Amino acid sequence: MNKKILTLLSLLVLASCQDNTLFFEESFIIDNINLIDPIEGLIPNQTVVIKGNKIIEIYNSKEINLSQKNNIYSGDEKYLIPGLWDAHIHFAFEKDLASSMPNLFLYYGITSLRDTGGPIEFVDQFKQNALKNPKTKSRVKIAGPLLDGKYNVYDGSDITHPVLSIKNIDESQLKKNIEDLVDLKVDFLKAYEMLSPKQFKVLMDLSKKHNLKVTGHVPLSMDVISVSNLGLNSIEHFRNIELSMTNLDQELLKERLSLLKNKSSLSGAKLRSKLHDKQRMRSIYNLDSSKIKEVVSTLSKNNTWQIPTLKLYKNFAYKNYKNQEYLRSLDILPETSKIAWKKRINKISLDQSKQMKDYTDWSKNMVKFMHENDIKFMAGTDTPIGFLVPGLSLHQEIQELNEAGLNTLEALQTATINPSIYFNLQDSLGRIKNNYVADLIILAKNPLEDIRNTKSILAVIKDGNYLDRNYLDSIVR
Ligand SMILES: [Zn+2]
Q: Which one of 125, 184, 188, 425 has the fewest beta carbons within 10 angstroms of its own beta carbon?
């Protein structure tokens, strides 16, 4: 509806009320708030009317007169942003923690999640639970298991490699597994590192047939330009893209193909580590600017999005989790996980590896360069991997993206409208507009002035349901 008609209609409503005030039955009204839409930016003095699970009207607060019979929340001096997405989580990584994760996400205003790999029957429980309880559970999009190749990395062999992936001996087994996942209604698919080029092609063909997005790590048997040209929709952690950003790229690929024959019969996890150890830093120390430009322009042209997981890398390289403030942030975890994490952290030495720091710094610079080349990002964390606290870590990731070169509004987009676009929900989710789902966060401070203010959460609105500070505190106690 255009603005003139809208104003006219409002006037009619006004005129129809005896006392010239507006009344909305069974509604929740946030009055006179600073609205931050991720596309339009800050719009001060807005009155947002929520009914059921939707935003039904937005007014300029100065132009209306609300009846005191309404259910009104005063937004004076406060800020309203859309509920946030964490676009990279793993419910299945620490099964003891999994059942506490939904409340932690909600507590931190993360109202939508993209689970990037775990056994289908396990992650689907979280998706179904959210579908049944949209007013108190964050929506969950799932990939099911990582689709790996003949050698399987996340096969459950140890604590650092729980079961997240499935092995696919050949193309026909992969085809069957994908068809099964499609029948179980997964929301996207995830390609993993041990896929062969032929398997990767099968995966891309099937995903197009079923209209599903594919995210992944660049398979070690391929180069990033080929996978992008074949239509991979997004890449997690920049994984293996550096191998194609050096003049050594052809030589490195040849070496990988030979090592992937796996003559010494290593496990999937060991084989992958061996390849990373041999090639990652060799690439980083031999980067070539024309190769970088070629890769980045290909990703940009093909609209291959990136989920850089900067905080994850930073945590590993700089051992942020050893500092006091970080350790205090673990207090929000359930007791058993908190104790287990602190124990593990204690065992890790303070020594920092120069190589890991160089890699982390490179990834941050790469975000800036890609951003300048119009590549889109989603904020994703990989929680609970890397001692990343579910929920809190998403705020930390947005901060990293901001520090890497996105302005505060662009950083907010990576956790609101961008993931909505990714799942084709951009007309109903991720903005503050009429007819959008009322997944919202009320903040005490302006995140456009300082992105860390996304943590100043006063209340969360999930599917139109107002959850105040007391409620949020109660669910993590
Ligand atoms: Zn992951």
A: 184
Query: What residues make up the domain containing 442?
Result: 3-82+436-475
Output the average pLDDT for the chain. Answer: 95
Ligand 1 centroid distance, CA of 35 (Å): 33
419 alpha carbon – ligand 1 mean position (Å): 16
Ligand 1 center–CA 403 separation, angstroms: 22
- Using alpha carbons, select from 219, 249, 229 the residue that is nearest to residue 301: 229
If asked whether residues 287 and 194 sit together in one domain, one would say yes
Closest by alpha carbon to 476, among 383, 338, 343, 345?
338
Distance from C-alpha of 347 to C-alpha of 354, rounded to nearest angstrom: 20
90 CA → ligand 1 middle, Å: 6
CA pair distance 81, 73, nearest whole angstrom: 15
CA 88 to ligand 1 center in whole angstroms? 6
Residues 6+ apart with CB under 8 A from 282: 246, 248, 252
In 3-state terms, what secondary structure has residue 141? strand
27 SS3 class: strand
Residue 2 has pLDDT above 70, yes or no: no
Question: 385 pLDDT exceeds 80?
Answer: yes
Helical residues (DSSP H) of 136-248, grouped into ranges: 171-183, 197-209, 224-229
Last residue of a domain, one of 252, 269, 303: 303
Q: How confident is the model at residue 19 (pLDDT cuts 50, 70, 90)?
A: confident
Rounded Cα gap, residues 189 and 213, in angstroms: 6
Residue that terminates a domain, selected from 303, 324, 343: 303
Within 13 Å and on the Cβ side, how many CA atoms surround 267?
9
